[in-house]
Structures are given as structure tokens and as C-alpha cells.
Amino acid sequence: MKVVTNLDGLDAATFLVEAIVEDHSSKTRVLADLGELSRHAGTGAVLATTTSSLSIAELAAASGHPERFAGLHVFNPVPRMALVEVVFPRAASEPTRTRTLELCRALGKTPVEVPDTPGFVVNRLLFPYLFDAVRLLSETGLEPAAIDDCMKLGAGMPTGPIALLDYVGLDVAIAIGESLRLEIPERLRMLASQGAVGRKAGRGFYDYAQ
Fold first, then answer.
1. Is residue 65 annotated as a catalytic residue, yes or no?
2. How many Cβ atoms sit within 10 Å of the Cβ of residue 85?
């Protein structure tokens, strides 16, 4: 493996995957640079982005090469989750589609092609449920573990909704919720404003500092 800090070091790459912060303006800046494929990568290189909610059509346009573009929504925890939601802009060529799906399979993942719609499939269905769990928490005064245990033991969920939000990151959850135009629970915003954004911060709905 070789780590480079200059885009010119990618001149031999045949498949580039951008995986920076889930922020539209940040991604478009990087993709615009990476999109200069004739300078930064081999001829015919595929350019992909990792995102859980952003518009693939808009990111593809920012790259300047929508015919060579793909969106990948990889699920956490990566070693345990097989699914990759794959999204293509309309202009994506057949070789781009084939190579992207083959790459996912070569990495031991199961690619499923989904439409370029906010939240794709999983997040579009998942986040209303997660936010309802937060509202129930506030309405009832239940402890987070009580709701999580109910959903794990009663609904067969591998992880409860509150613990899952902490794992995703409350800041990321808010961004996804806004992209889906969902009403964000006030308790979620309050914790995020205090820097308690989940496991990565050591504190969210649960305290991970112990």
C-alpha cells in the first residue's frame, strides 16, 4: 500500500474512490480536482464517491466526467456488513457500471443498484424509525437501553435505534435527516450542539468515556 498527499501521485490509478467528510461543498471541490482524469489518473479511470445521502447526479456533474462516475454507500461496521448501495448517474457508461459492480464483489461485498433518491433505500426507510425512537425517548422518559433492548429482543434488531444513532454519529444523522427533509428531534440537536455526537466523541445518548 502507498499513501500519497499529492494528487499527481494518483496518475497510475484506474479506480478512484473519494471518501472525505459527508459535506456537499467539500466533496465537490475534491471531485472537481480528481475529475481532471487526464492529469490525475489513467485514461478511463472510474471516479466514485462514498455517500449515504448526497445527490449522485450533482456530485457526478462536479467531477466533470459523469460517464465515469459512481456512488457507493458502504455500511458500517464494514467488516460485518455485506451491502453496498450502488448509484449511477444517467450518463454512466456500461464499462463504468460493470467495473464498479465487479470491484464491490472483489471486495467481498454484495452490490445492489438503487435509484438516486435522497437516502437511497436503507436510509430513506431507516431514519424515520430512528428519529421516532428519539421522540419516544423524550415523551416517555425511558432510558436509551430500555428502547434498545425492546427493539433487539422484541423485533430482532441486531442493534437498538439509540445505540445505532450514536454509532452513526448524531451530526451525520442530522445531516441525513435534513437531506431527507425529516423533522429532526430536538433532543438530537441539543446533544449535537453540546459536542455529544456519539461514540466518536465519547458521548452521545450513551456515555462511552468509562
1. no
2. 21
CATH code, 175 = 1.10.1040.10
Catalytic residue, chosen from 24, 40, 65, 73, is 73
Residue 170's identity, in one-letter code, is L
DSSP H helical ranges for the chain: 24-34, 37-40, 56-63, 94-106, 122-140, 144-155, 161-168, 170-179, 186-193
Distance CA 140, CA 163 (A): 18
82: which DSSP letter? Answer: -
Average pLDDT by consecutive 10-residue portion of the chain (210 residues)?
74 87 91 74 84 94 94 90 97 97 97 96 96 97 98 95 96 92 97 97 92
Q: pTM above the 0.90 mark? A: no
**C-alpha cell, 68:** 465515469
CATH number for the domain that contains residue 94: 3.40.50.720
Give me the sheet containing 15-18, strands edge to edge: 15-18, 46-50, 69-74, 83-87, 110-113
